[in-house]
């Protein structure tokens, strides 16, 4: 009969071990464990090193897995740090330290050195003054924290991290920072690729969300004169209030962004600091990149995990048991090993060494919880499973704190230990069992913090037979890992079967055809609430934090998702991160999750004729318009109106609505918005054209497309920002211009009518060959430009179309290509409201079927403007020279764009497509978790291994659903 002992090693485990961790000819896990055990024993007294090396190796063999940096570098001649991650302070000056905090570029240098030595870095950028704030020393305006984050992002991309492709980063900004909205949306269009981002949220803000009240966005830096003129003022506490916003509006932006883009996460700062054992001597405002360690400036993550599956006795039997005594023994030895790491590691910076010496933070956790529960016949989302996870965590807590107290008796307490302060004040330590508190008072404590549940990533593959990661359930039971081979190996890919430990053990014991028990449940089969409930069950026993990514399927309803972070706050969690796979997260130039082994994407064609190029196209699905034009309603229709009040006057905004009957009424409420128009003599020029093109977007059966359009308008900047009352209460809100203000009112009304609900079909979004504007390299790209001169309005400007080369639809791989506009813009003297129209049409240009942009442009040809008509040449392919009267600048611009499409052979001069590319219909959404729990491809970021845009965030790590690549974590 098969037993646990004769379960064979997976090929992938040996491959990852050799590739990622083995050094100097090591060929087995035992050889590697021997090296690490000897290295950590060097911190012991010379006479006791042999004994402790043997004890350490035994702990490693019984299931303790130190973090990847320790396994890779301990006992080698590398100068790399054994510490996975740090937090780096960042001040507001360029280079000068203020209040002991280094300036921005000093912090950048320190971070680069840390990453070069193998450590990831987290930052709180909240000290950096907001965009537009006054810089008195240079009489200039600040560019804001997001702009400096881009500098850190590029540095991280450039600096090769020891033992990995590049470093990892976490960027945090406080919820009350004036630039918080720019931060929330900083990654919407693919920016800051080398950052995870999280918002630091306070209890006061969360209460404002619950109460639906306004909050101040503040900073100590002085605003610019223009910002003060716009309403910024100084409070009694010295902070400057840049503006007030509705808390729920900010919170909704966070939730929508994390639903659509998987970021930002949230950190509950007050809970983190109230629970902090060192509340009396430090303040925490940031975490390490995977968020399992809230850390002070220069704080470090000294991490290790214990494989829980190694302590399940009689797995899958009628009466399986968890070996608590054996587990506690390994916890005690592992605590000593992590304390030793602090003494044997090289430190990238002296400040990091000082911080560690004063507090001796370590982070011991577990991995394989999901698999251990399956082996105990417990379904992950059951009360019994949560109770077992709590008990395991309690045993780990008590054993670790007891061991650290014993170490203090032997070696001394950490220098900042003060028993009275440490065991009081409502911190984690104040809630320890009384027996432990008595022991700590009597003997002291070696380590200020002891517990952390981190993602394990590749160390689980190499040392734990691919047991489920950290606190997570299994993501899939099996998949194929396609590993790229080097040129010396002949190139191409080698495939490995990767199987979950519990799944393969079950099949090993009972046969490949044995039906799985009801305990076998994967991450995507669980609700978001079930994921969060497990964190809530374990969190009371963890003194730092837990890395938890709530993975949900792409079609997970927003209404079930939107309260997830609020529930986490009410459950007294310290933070949470989520991931819902979607094509928004894909590469700008690679947007379909088609699984193949592609040639590398080429952003530019070679030669002097530099043009952007897209290698692959989406499926052709476009026209989902409910009506090609305004529906015929002889009896009239209702409309909602609102007065837009801007610095140059007021005008009325109308949202035309269509009463619905039948099933759709339940989805959208009583009315469906289907058009927008404006009225009033003081409306900005060009705004009517924007409303006209947006009306056609309202008629699509694609709420995601409409949200995309409104998002594009939300940040259109004009000559000056202004405050405007917003429905329903009339609270004022600062807007960068009238286009953004108008879009915000339209969004509010659409939300009231349910027209922006998540989860419906997305036929237009699916048909885009690039959701974000394709970006050039440093060589630039050719574009088409034409000058426009309207003497009636005294306007002279240049219209520019950026263009991209696409493969011929239906003939991909044949070498055929077609050039298409992908974005437009204006420069010179023109109505600034046209910037809004340009953003809308740029998105329309990236819909694959040219019938779409042709329809939009034809609708603009008859846009008139009082006293704005003028005489100008008629564009012509034949070279004919004649002039005609154009009703407005907008109409002429539309005609010029149609002409360019005609020059490229896409549309004719009337704006009609020369060749159909397929009528649009919404494809059926694929199931993400097929029967049997096998892995299915999901849209995500580009994978560095296989090139597909299929890399998602799973269990705190990057993971490619096409080739099985696992990013650097754990």
Automatic annotation (TrEMBL):
<keyword id="KW-0547">Nucleotide-binding</keyword>
<keyword id="KW-0215">Deoxyribonucleotide synthesis</keyword>
<comment type="similarity">
    <text>Belongs to the ribonucleoside diphosphate reductase class-2 family.</text>
</comment>
<dbReference type="InterPro" id="IPR000788">
    <property type="entry name" value="RNR_lg_C"/>
</dbReference>
<keyword id="KW-0560">Oxidoreductase</keyword>
<keyword id="KW-0170">Cobalt</keyword>
<dbReference type="Pfam" id="PF00317">
    <property type="entry name" value="Ribonuc_red_lgN"/>
</dbReference>
<keyword id="KW-0237">DNA synthesis</keyword>
<keyword id="KW-1015">Disulfide bond</keyword>
<dbReference type="InterPro" id="IPR013509">
    <property type="entry name" value="RNR_lsu_N"/>
</dbReference>
<comment type="function">
    <text>Catalyzes the reduction of ribonucleotides to deoxyribonucleotides. May function to provide a pool of deoxyribonucleotide precursors for DNA repair during oxygen limitation and/or for immediate growth after restoration of oxygen.</text>
</comment>
<keyword id="KW-0846">Cobalamin</keyword>
<dbReference type="GO" id="GO:0004748">
    <property type="term" value="F:ribonucleoside-diphosphate reductase activity, thioredoxin disulfide as acceptor"/>
</dbReference>
<feature type="domain" description="Ribonucleotide reductase large subunit N-terminal">
    <location>
        <begin position="10"/>
        <end position="78"/>
    </location>
</feature>
<protein>
    <recommendedName>
        <fullName>Vitamin B12-dependent ribonucleotide reductase</fullName>
        <ecNumber>1.17.4.1</ecNumber>
    </recommendedName>
</protein>
<dbReference type="Pfam" id="PF02867">
    <property type="entry name" value="Ribonuc_red_lgC"/>
</dbReference>
<feature type="domain" description="Ribonucleotide reductase large subunit C-terminal">
    <location>
        <begin position="84"/>
        <end position="579"/>
    </location>
</feature>
<dbReference type="InterPro" id="IPR050862">
    <property type="entry name" value="RdRp_reductase_class-2"/>
</dbReference>
<dbReference type="InterPro" id="IPR013344">
    <property type="entry name" value="RNR_NrdJ/NrdZ"/>
</dbReference>
């Amino acid at each position: 009969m098969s037993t646990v002992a004769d379960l064979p090693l997976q090929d992938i485990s040996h491959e990852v071990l050799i590739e990622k961790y083995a050094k100097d000819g090591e060929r087995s896990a035992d050889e590697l464990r021997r090296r690490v055990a000897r290295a950590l024993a060097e911190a012991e007294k010379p006479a006791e090193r042999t004994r402790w090396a043997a004890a350490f190796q035994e702990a490693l063999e019984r299931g303790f897995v130190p973090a990847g940096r320790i396994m890779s570098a301990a006992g080698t001649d590398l100068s790399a740090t054994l510490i996975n991650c740090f937090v780096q302070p960042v001040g507001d000056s360029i280079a000068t330290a203020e209040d002991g905090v280094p300036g921005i570029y000093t912090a950048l240098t320190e971070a680069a050195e840390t990453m070069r030595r193998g450590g990831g870095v987290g930052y709180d950028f909240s000290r950096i003054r907001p965009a537009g704030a006054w810089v008195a020393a240079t009489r200039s305006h600040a560019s804001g924290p997001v702009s400096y984050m881009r500098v850190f992002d590029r540095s991280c991309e450039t600096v090769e991290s020891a033992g990995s492709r590049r470093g990892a980063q976490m960027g945090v900004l406080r919820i009350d920072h004036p630039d918080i909205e720019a931060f929330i949306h900083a990654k919407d269009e693919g920016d800051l690729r080398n950052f995870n981002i999280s918002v630091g949220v306070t209890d006061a803000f969360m209460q404002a969300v619950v109460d639906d009240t306004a909050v101040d966005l503040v900073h100590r830096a002085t605003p610019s004169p223009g910002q003060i003129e716009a309403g910024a003022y100084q409070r009694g506490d010295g902070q400057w209030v840049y503006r007030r916003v509705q808390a729920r509006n900010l919170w909704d932006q966070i939730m929508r962004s994390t639903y659509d883009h998987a970021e930002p996460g949230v950190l509950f700062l007050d809970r983190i600091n109230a629970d902090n054992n060192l509340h009396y001597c430090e303040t925490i405002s940031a975490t390490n990149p995977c968020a399992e360690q809230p850390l002070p400036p220069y704080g470090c993550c000294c991490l290790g995990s214990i494989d829980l599956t190694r302590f399940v006795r009689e797995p899958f039997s009628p009466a399986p048991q968890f070996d608590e005594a054996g587990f506690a023994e390994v916890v005690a030895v592992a605590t000593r090993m992590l304390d030793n790491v602090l003494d044997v590691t090289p430190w990238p910076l002296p400040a990091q060494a000082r911080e560690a010496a004063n507090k001796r933070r370590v982070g011991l956790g577990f991995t394989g919880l999901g698999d251990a529960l399956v082996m105990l016949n417990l379904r992950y989302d059951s009360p019994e499973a949560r109770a077992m996870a709590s008990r395991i965590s309690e045993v780990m807590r008590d054993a670790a704190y007891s061991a650290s107290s014993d170490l203090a008796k032997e070696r001394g307490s950490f220098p900042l230990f003060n028993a009275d302060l440490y065991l009081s004040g409502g911190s984690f330590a104040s809630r320890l069992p009384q027996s432990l508190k008595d022991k700590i008072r009597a003997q002291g404590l070696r380590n200020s913090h002891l517990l952390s549940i981190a993602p394990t990533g590749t160390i689980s593959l190499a040392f734990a037979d691919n047991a489920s990661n950290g606190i997570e359930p299994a993501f899939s039971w099996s998949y194929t890992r396609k590993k790229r081979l080097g040129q010396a190996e002949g190139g191409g890919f080698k495939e490995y079967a990767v199987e979950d430990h519990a799944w393969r053990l079950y099949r090993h014991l009972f046969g490949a055809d044995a039906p799985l028990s009801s305990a076998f449940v994967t991450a995507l089969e669980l609700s978001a609430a079930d994921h969060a409930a497990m964190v809530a069950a374990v969190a009371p026993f963890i003194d730092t934090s837990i890395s938890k990514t709530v993975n949900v399927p792409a079609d997970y309803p927003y209404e079930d998702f939107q309260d997830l972070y609020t529930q986490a706050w009410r459950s007294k969690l310290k933070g949470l991160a989520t991931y819902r796979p979607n094509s928004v997260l894909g590469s700008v130039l690679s947007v379909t999750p088609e699984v193949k082994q592609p040639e590398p994407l080429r952003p530019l064609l070679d030669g002097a004729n530099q043009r952007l190029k897209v290698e692959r196209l989406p499926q052709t699905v476009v026209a989902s318009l409910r009506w090609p034009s305004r529906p015929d309603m002889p009896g009239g229709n209702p409309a909602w109106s609102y007065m837009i009040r801007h610095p140059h006057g007021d005008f009325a905004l109308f949202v035309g609505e269509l009463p619905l009957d039948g099933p759709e009424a339940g989805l959208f409420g009583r009315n469906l918005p289907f058009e927008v128009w404006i009225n009033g003599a003081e409306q900005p020029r060009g705004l009517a054209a924007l409303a006209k093109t947006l009306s056609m977007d309202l008629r699509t059966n694609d709420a995601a497309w409409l949200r995309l359009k409104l998002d594009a308008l939300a940040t259109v900047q004009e000559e000056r920002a202004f405050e405007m009352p917003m429905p329903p209460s009339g609270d004022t809100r600062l807007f960068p211009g009238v286009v953004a203000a108008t879009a915000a009112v339209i969004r509010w009304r659409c939300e009231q009518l349910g027209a922006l609900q998540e989860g419906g079909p997305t036929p237009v979004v699916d048909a885009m060959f690039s959701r974000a504007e394709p970006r050039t390299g440093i060589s630039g790209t050719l574009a088409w430009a034409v000058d426009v001169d309207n003497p009636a309005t005294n306007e002279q400007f240049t219209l520019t179309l950026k263009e991209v080369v696409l493969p011929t639809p239906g003939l991909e791989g044949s070498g055929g290509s077609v050039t298409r506009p992908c974005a437009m813009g204006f420069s010179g003297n023109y109505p600034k409201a046209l910037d809004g129209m340009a953003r809308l049409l740029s998105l329309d240009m990236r819909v694959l079927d040219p019938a779409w942009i042709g329809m939009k442009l034809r609708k603009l040809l008859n846009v008139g403007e009082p006293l704005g008509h003028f005489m100008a040449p008629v564009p012509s392919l034949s070279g004919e020279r004649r002039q005609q009267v154009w009703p407005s600048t907008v109409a002429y611009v539309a005609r010029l764009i149609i002409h360019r499409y005609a020059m490229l052979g896409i549309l004719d001069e009337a704006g009609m497509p020369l060749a159909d590319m397929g009528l649009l219909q919404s494809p059926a959404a694929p199931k993400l978790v097929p029967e049997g729990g096998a892995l299915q491809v999901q849209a995500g970021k580009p994978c560095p291994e296989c090139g597909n845009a299929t890399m998602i965030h799973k269990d705190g790590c990057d993971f490619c659903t096409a080739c099985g690549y696992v990013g650097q974590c754990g």
